UniProtKB/TrEMBL annotation:
PANTHER family: AAA+ ATPASE DOMAIN-CONTAINING PROTEIN-RELATED, ATP/GTP-BINDING PROTEIN-RELATED. SUPFAM superfamilies: P-loop containing nucleoside triphosphate hydrolases, TPR-like. It comes from Streptomyces lunalinharesii. This is Tetratricopeptide repeat protein.
Amino acid sequence: MKGAMDGHAEDGGRVYQSSHDQHISEYHYHGSEEPGLAGPDSVRRPAVGRAPVVLRDRAEVLARLRSSTAAGGGGRAFVLHGMGGCGKTAVAYAFFQFATEGDSRVGLWVNASDRASLRSGMLAVAADRGATDGELLAARNGLRPGADLVWERLRRSTEPWLLVLDNADDPEILRDGSWLRTSPNGIVVVTTRRAAPRWWPGAELQHIGVLPRDDAARVLCDLAPQSGTVKQAAEIADKLGRLPLALTLAGGFLSHQVLDPWTMDAYRRHLEEGEGVELIDQGADILSDDDPRHLVARTWHLTLDTFEARGLPEAVTLLRLLARFAPEPLPISLLNHPEVGRAFPRARTESALRALLDQSLTELIDVGVRCVQTHGVLLDSVASATPPETLTVLSTTASKLLDAAVPEQPDAGPEDPQLRLLSPHAIALLRHGAAPPTMAELVATATRLATALHRTGDYLSAWETAEGAVRLSRETLGAEHRLVLAAHSRAGRALFRLGRYAEAERVLRQVRGTQERLFGAADPDTLESSHGLQLVLGNLGQRPEALSLLRATITGRLASLGPAHPLTLRSQASLLTMLSKSELEMPENVSLLSLPTDCEHHLGPDHTVTLGARHNHAWALYVLHRLREAEEEIQLVSEMYERRFGPDYPIALSAQQLHARIQYHLGDVEAAVDLMDEVVQKRANSLGPDHPFTTASRRVLADFRGNGRTAH
């Protein structure tokens, strides 16, 4: 390197300013036999559970939507808005079927209810439209704007398309990152409870309200034709405010009574005699003074009363348990765990779930993982009416079930779609709140989930989960609670991976300072934050402080964890990338060169820490000008990375770049140029041509081509 120092970080790793070669070492805790991004399996299939038997009314709305497809039309965005349960998704589904079957469009369906679901769904759209594994991986890891990639691919689509963004009840999620756009190639439909035009500039708004009386009556008759007449159905529809969700629940109830079938008249009388339960429909705009939303609660409450009367109290408890979670797909395996026995006998889970499914109170869907999903309006109403004396048991049970679903010791591995599904449920449980002991357990589980997401490369979800745990638990546990601080530290680590170094430094300095004051400098939590902070400082060019902090971390981990612990070995391996030639040759540092052997002995040859130590060792050998040994080591590392992570993975490209440097200094300029050219192309493809990593690789390639043996 000549002239002023211009350090940069590669692969979300570290960089240290120096007057010689720089090596980026911080290895990634993730890997997969299949490096591509796994998105929801339902991107071509609406995840709506059961479609309506017949879509009543809505003819005018559908005609307007269908007209937009004439002559391959595109460039339009429609927003279907209305209260929860009014049938917005049903309208979108009907249009989706028309567009994909009658208009031969590519149909793409994304759940936009939370950031994680929106991001994974939209990246699945990009994959469907031809995005490469490298592009998807970079977007998923936060290394390039995900929305830009999606819309670039949608604009380049050779086929017309329809994109549905369902349940976009928090428009801020779409605004952040500019996920909602238009393109001449396609049509966008959004379903939402939020009607204010300021959220939807340039879109065509369409209100979806309650059904006309006759159509509402026909919905009941469609679902329960043997229960009564159209006139009787109309009277029930009036009592239910003609809200499609309430009508669906009522129809499901009436159609599934076997031992003692109810007539519509009997059902109406119970509605009149029962007391409605106030429904909290978060995020919906009040459409009129005569708001019928509370009638949904009255409808499901009648069903639950019947469950109790017929000896199925577990169905009531199960629905109340589901109401502790988010209205998002919930892996069904989570309910098939012994911890459910805290709320009701585990042997009764199957019959309880079947009862809810039969009554249309929840639905089975498949998003790559078998799940149950329950309407948000229904969950809100159930939660608001849950007896206070049952909340402790329900919250504890939900917390234990979530905890059992998260890996006890998160490690590197392929992307696990179930982890991504768990994130909104962790946040929902925290948002509901609980007694301090249960809240502490939830924070610990959320932190472990964030760690697992981090180690599969889903840094954005990791940050959102950890940050949400901090934000939602502070009031109950206090900002200086050990577990809250650990979650905050994990959020800082995710910020580092996202390249937000200034924020990461601020968070990690604050957390580490508090941990040191409360627990001491040698406490394991303090040392974990110290390791994370030195990574950030190294990337910010603050080498002396980073080196001092890393040495202190190693000393602390040797004392508290011992020399064979993965964290101790990992911190020691980091020293291999920080030391200059003269420092590596000092007697006290010579033993570091045997570290890969120590890691293999204690952890095994395929452990992530062992691989990272070998990568860092290859760099140290390069710095020491032991080029043949360095080449042999980095070839082995590259082969293992490619087998485990794939050839286009960032850390694999980092290893290839080091290999190219070594080849160049060995005099094989042509091979070095060819390999660096491949690295540059792959980084431009995955990160974009202007990403700092791409720019750095391009600079190395230019040195190889233009500066002779001065390049490094």
